Amino acid sequence: MDPIVILQAGVASGTVLLFAALGEVFAERSGVLNLGVEGMMLIGAMTAFSTTIATGNPWIGVLAAMIAAGLLSQIHAFIAVTLQADQVVSGLALTMVGAGISLVLGEGLSKAGTVSLLPNFSIPWLSALPVLGPIFFTKQSILVYLGYLMTPLAWYYINHTRPGLHLRAVGEYPAAADALGINVFRLRYAYIFVGGALAGLAGATISLAVAPGWFSELTTGGQGWIAVGLVIFAQWDPIRAAIGSYAFGALRRLILDIQAPLLLFGVDNPFYYNPYFSFFLQMLPYAFTVIVLVIGSREAVRKRLGAPAALGEPYIRGERGK
Amino acid sequence: MNATNNSFPLAVEMKGIVKRFPGVLANDHVDFELRVGEIHALLGENGAGKSTLMNILAGLYKQDAGIIKVKGKRLEFSSPRDAIKAGIGMVHQHFMLVPSQTVTENILLGLDEPRFLMRLSEYDKKIADLGDSYGLKVDPRAKIWQLSVGEQQRVELLKMLYRGADVLVMDEPTAVLAPQEIEVLFDTLRSMAAQGKSVIFISHKLHEVSSIADRVSVLRRGKATASGEPAKGVTKQQLASMMVGREVVLFVDRKPKQAGNVILDVKDVHAENDKGLPALRGLSLNVRAGEIVGIAGVAGNGQIELSQVIAGMRKCKQGDVTLNGEKVSNRDTLYGIEHGMSYVPEDRTHVGSSPNLSVTDNVIMKNYRKAPISKGSLLDMNAASKFAQQLKEAYDIIVPTVNTPVRLLSGGNLQRVILAREISGTPNFMVAVQPTRGLDVGAIEGVHRLLLTQREADAAVLLISEELEELLALSDRVYVIYEGKIMGEVQVGVGEPDERLLEAIGLMMTGTSLEQIQNEGVAAHG
Ligand SMILES: Nc1ncnc2c1ncn2[C@@H]1O[C@H](COP(=O)(O)OP(=O)(O)O)[C@@H](O)[C@H]1O
Ligand SMILES: [Mg+2]
Fold first, then answer.
1. Is the dihedral of CA B112, B117, B119, B124 positive or negative?
2. How far apart are CA B232 and CA B321, in angstroms?
3. Is the full-model pTM beyond 0.95?
4. pLDDT (tens digit, 9 = 90+) per residue, A217-252?
5. A14, A103, B84, B510: least surrounded by Cβ within 10 Å?
6. What is the pLDDT, as a whole number, of residue B470?
């Protein structure tokens, strides 16, 4: 077990979480909680894979995945923003819809054989850096590099641009934004779409780069939920979301590798000989997610963590009070 | 400028405005005219339709009928953006500011400039300069949540001035200010009017009208009962009867009375607000039998948290609250109730009552545990109805039957339901938070009378209110709260309060302690 290899693979697998979490950061910063990330990722993974088979071009696959998941997210937008219904329920429903559609349409895809995948390459010069070079810049997928670019850009966009200012205002105090002529409804639709498209990209990252192929609901294996938990953990900040994503990616990878028939520190690997240990380890990220979601569902805690003040609340113009 | 001159050009003209909400006609063919350079007061009771009329002018609501002309041109507003473009800026009753953003960010919100990147430091400077030119001092880099209410109001004004507004609508701007801050605001408004801006000043306080307005319009139940009367030409009495529709005596009959033993004792209490920030910092006070003690203060200085700690609904980090010698803080609410606590919370519709339950269900919420309503593990609903019926008559609750859900009740009636429930438990202590907010004059009188009856019955009453007049009329003593601490305590005699008392309370509301005031007073006189 080479720690560098584990970390390198961890960054790749963390990129999946990163895209999904960034997307959810955008949606939640606009005040809309979307628990449908898992479903949108499945749609993305399935669409990316099948489109790539059909066209032979993985880029078209990625684009199709983002559009498909983005469109799916608009169901949530309609229910949560226009109909002003409960966002938790609608998000859960979206997960089921996304999973259902992708399982039906993805039927038979698992036997489809090989497709052309997205390119992997090393970055000259940077890959020569000690430790960081092999982990971050050697033989990674182009999408991993995209993740490096997207994180600071997302952070800068949210905190230092005019549209970012509007995004924050809509999530913090929509009535104030509305009074100044900002179209709260349109922005929320737009950022839910962004969230969906990024979840689709996360799905495409799995099926075309990190763990290529379509394995029905096991393709995503609950990573959408981990991403939702990460957003709370990251306090709605893209940089922190990236750190959390890579850490979780590495942890997932470590758990996989630790189940090999190895010697650990000179003794037989107990995780290999006793599968229950490894089941337990595999459970950990999900247990973490459950705990974070439970804690984060308490309004008082959310406030302390700095959640967007209007998160989860539909905006109704002219509503009194507050 | 002499804006009362008839030949003055009109800044805004609203004609035949109608606005309906489900079940209410909020504006009923209202005409309203604003002249360039005047300060025009829009007066009316709570619920008269003032905010609605101005929200229409600000493009937030769309009128069902009627026309709006701005500088002689007929305009249709489909959003606030249109109104802002036409030069109309509104400062809402509830500030429309994003608490987590800076002053500059809030001011730039929704503008096309800057296009993409926010180089805030350039704009900080611009905004500071704009503020200086109108005497509106505020730090552009401060986050809104760090500012006092008065400063936030200045940010709202700056926001509109920055957009080039020349018609400024201020919705009840004085409701959240201490007396001295009100003076500062009035000076600002006068200087803006002198620079050619037109100001609409919404209020339900009569005495403010004569001190600030050139002209006044009055709304009652959605109808205009006065349109653009010169403010100098009408008396308070006339205004009051236009507002209410009958003669009113704003007079509370509080007889001198000797207070008894200490009933409620709050000692060095510390507590946090919902955000986990300190809301109460070592606050102490007491209330004796047979007295009403007022808590004065600008909204948001810990009043709500104080009432919640006393009622047992908020954790007390340090210190304690004793009621009749029993420690009631950090215990469940039932323990307090069993020891004589009654609580009239600020939020009538969600904390004080359960909107979808009937009047009966709401009034038995405290005594359902005891006979005759409780029968073993069952409720005797006949006894409950009878009890509700008795309260309905005793407290003048106007409702078709006691089975009506309380969400259908008017504010005044709902408050009577709550007071009936609380008082019928014969408590010897009551904490009432903003018990008259949003009620009409008749209902206010009723609530005041009930509070005074409690005092006559030798109960201790803690009254938390943002209406200084109400506090001074009802209270025997007033504590002033500022940032979670008591700044001082004053005795209130019966009859008209004197100027010095008002001034001292005002100073304490903005953070000067009573000792400082007295020391300076001594220095000034000596
Ligand atoms: N958004 C709304 N939905 C329903 N009813 C409303 C709404 N806004 C105001 N009203 C009702 O319209 C009437 C006038 O309210 P408002 O204009 O706020 O009065 P004011 O500002 O004079 O106190 C009240 O009866 C109020 O309950
Ligand atoms: Mg109003």
1. positive
2. 50
3. no
4. 889 999 999 999 999 999 999 999 999 999 999 988
5. A103
6. 86
Residue nearest atom 25 in ligand 1 by C-alpha distance: B47
d(CA A182, CA B118): 17
CATH of domain A3-302: 1.10.3470
* Dihedral angle sign, alpha carbons of residues B151, B153, B157, B158: positive
CB-nearest partner of A181 from B79, B95, B100: B79
What type of residue sits at position A54? A
Q: Which chain A positions have a beta carbon within 8 Å of B274's beta carbon? A: 299-300, 303
The DSSP line for B453-500 is: HHHHTT-EEEEE-S-HHHHHHH-SEEEEEETTEEEEEEE--SSSPPHH
**Residue B524, pLDDT above cutoff 50:** no
Determine the distance separating the centroid of ligand 2 and the alpha carbon of A163, expressed in angstroms: 32
pLDDT value of position A257: 77
Distance CA B117, CA B119 (A): 6
Contacts of A181 in chain B (CB under 8 A): 79-82, 84, 110
Q: Residue B349's CB: how many other CB atoms inside 10 A? A: 14
Model confidence band, residue B436 (pLDDT cutoffs 50, 70, 90): confident
- The pLDDT value given to residue A321: 33
The reported pLDDT for the residue numbered B432 is 95
B503 compared with B98, residue with greater pLDDT: B98
Decide if A162 and B116 are in contact by the 8 Å CB cutoff. yes
For atom 1 of ligand 1, the residue with the nearest CA is: A318
Domain residue ranges of chain A, discontinuous segments joined by +:
3-302
The nearest alpha carbon in chain B to A169 belongs to: B98
Alpha helices in A206-261 (DSSP H): 223-233, 238-257
Cα pseudo-dihedral B495, B498, B501, B507, rounded to 10: 130
With CA atoms as reference, the chain A residue closest to B113 would be: A162
Q: Does residue A285 have a cis peptide bond before it, meaning omega lies within 30 degrees of 0? A: no
8 Å CB contact of A173 and B98: yes
Measure the CA dihedral B293/B297/B299/B303, to 10°. Answer: -40
Out of B60, B101, B117, closest to residue A179 by CB: B60
Calpha distance B195→B186 (Å, rounded): 14
**Of the segments A4-13, B246-255, B504-513, which one has the largest average pLDDT value?**
A4-13
User: Closest ligand to B55 CA?
Assistant: 1
Asked whether A26 and A167 are in contact (CB, 8 A), the reply is yes
Beta strands in B406-459 (DSSP E): 429-433
Could you give the CA distance from residue B259 to residue B256 in angstroms, rounded to a whole number? 10
pLDDT category of residue B1 using cuts at 50, 70 and 90: very low
Mutate to test the interface with B, among A29, A156, A157, A173 (most CBs of B within 10 A): A173
